[in-house]
Amino acid sequence: MSSRAVSFREEVRAWLATAPRPAGLHDYGPTPTAADVPAGRAWQAILAEAGYACLHWPERWGGRDAGVPDQAAFAEEAARAGVPRQLNIVGPDLVGPVLMTYGTPAQQAAYLPRIRTGHDMWCQLFSEPEAGSDLASVRTRAVRTDAGWVVDGQKVWTSGGGDAEYGLLLARTGGPGHRGLSVFVVPMDAPGVVVRPLLQMDNESKFNEVFLTGVALPADALVGAEGEGWAVATATLGRERLSLGANAVSMFRSLDDLVESATVRGRFDEHLRDEVTDLWIRVWLLRATWERAIASGEEPGAPAFSVLKLLSSETQRDIGNTGIEALGLDALWSENNEPLVHRMLVGHAQTILGGTSEIQRNILAERILGLPRDPYRAPA
Ligand SMILES: Cc1cc2nc3c(=O)[nH]c(=O)nc-3n(C[C@H](O)[C@H](O)[C@H](O)COP(=O)(O)OP(=O)(O)OC[C@H]3O[C@@H](n4cnc5c(N)ncnc54)[C@H](O)[C@@H]3O)c2cc1C
């Protein structure tokens, strides 16, 4: 590790040790629950004030142009300190960079500073009941009017939808397939937007159904050109894969928890030691893959980032499963907030969101290995 990287890590660790902590703040992961949002917003403002918000953004927009080692160091130190890396993933990691590429100067000026400071939380309005893996078949429609657009349709699995100020919406403005799609900014308090929370199996309620009925949007709500929605959506998903892949860097903390939990229960036997060693190696390989993917200079939509998302989510899932072995019977009656039980439940979700493991494997097969296209998917 370079001495500069070490000094950044030390700087962050020292700052985290004395930084003000909003009441109730804890490491809630990529998305806060409604109860976590006030502390998460206050924390994002503190990060922005101290220069630790949106590290990967360019300096022009208040970031630090941070490379992989500094981002990794920050994520690890935040995990060690038991605080989230940021308010939520959608604004800083997905929408911000996408607006920098596809947004107009007016959109950038209106939205980017407020994402960085936590004034605005964003959600991602992509998935629909009949369009998850096959995102190009979304049915929510935006129709052009004299004043702008009117949107009708339904979205589902919208993380943070009930607390967000804005949503990034994928909607159909033209014919079927990829070319008929466009992306819009939707104020979540616009008339006609109804958000209904969904209760998850971990007893949390982070995602929602969103119903859009006659929602009027101004002409300048369009992000990118009309019909350019697939490119914007792909860039967003690429960013999501990159960001989910980057979660790997904080997994060392879970491995430490796992070893401790097994040791205090007298369960850290040879079998568990082998599993932990294997997971530890996988986390290091992930970090190296993350660095290589970024250094390659490829666009986040590139298939290389599917490898990162696949490896990261499946490693998280496997850490969760090994954590259950470490807890033994205690896993059955522990509270949902037992970190290792929570990690197991969340680990499975990670293999679904942002494109399932099967879809990542299809992308790798078709776009990296050059195998024939999936016969069940419509031609591009
Ligand atoms: C925790 C969590 C948070 C989420 N947050 C958001 C959010 O904020 N915004 C948002 O828009 N969406 C969100 N999602 C939705 C997520 O993007 C979708 O769940 C995902 O894309 C899969 O779509 P689906 O659930 O409709 O499953 P389906 O597409 O119906 O897939 C069902 C199963 O079939 C498999 N399958 C489907 N097609 C193929 C194929 N061609 N080849 C092989 N296997 C296939 C899948 O891998 C899966 O196992 C979230 C999901 C989760 C779990």
TrEMBL record:
Signal peptide: none annotated. Residues 227-369 form the Acyl-CoA dehydrogenase/oxidase C-terminal domain. The lineage of its organism: Bacteria, Bacillati, Actinomycetota, Actinomycetes, Cryptosporangiales. Residues 7-118 form the Acyl-CoA dehydrogenase/oxidase N-terminal domain. The keyword Flavoprotein applies. Coiled coil: none annotated. Keywords: FAD, Flavoprotein, Oxidoreductase. It comes from the Bacteria. Residues 123-200 form the Acyl-CoA oxidase/dehydrogenase middle domain. This is Acyl-CoA dehydrogenase. SUPFAM superfamilies: Acyl-CoA dehydrogenase C-terminal domain-like (SSF47203), Acyl-CoA dehydrogenase NM domain-like (SSF56645). GO terms for cellular component: plasma membrane. Pfam families: Acyl-CoA_dh_1, Acyl-CoA_dh_M, Acyl-CoA_dh_N. One of its GO terms (molecular function) is oxidoreductase activity, acting on the CH-CH group of donors. Belongs to the acyl-CoA dehydrogenase family. Gene3D superfamilies: Acyl-CoA dehydrogenase/oxidase, N-terminal domain, Butyryl-CoA Dehydrogenase, subunit A, domain 2, Butyryl-CoA Dehydrogenase, subunit A, domain 3.
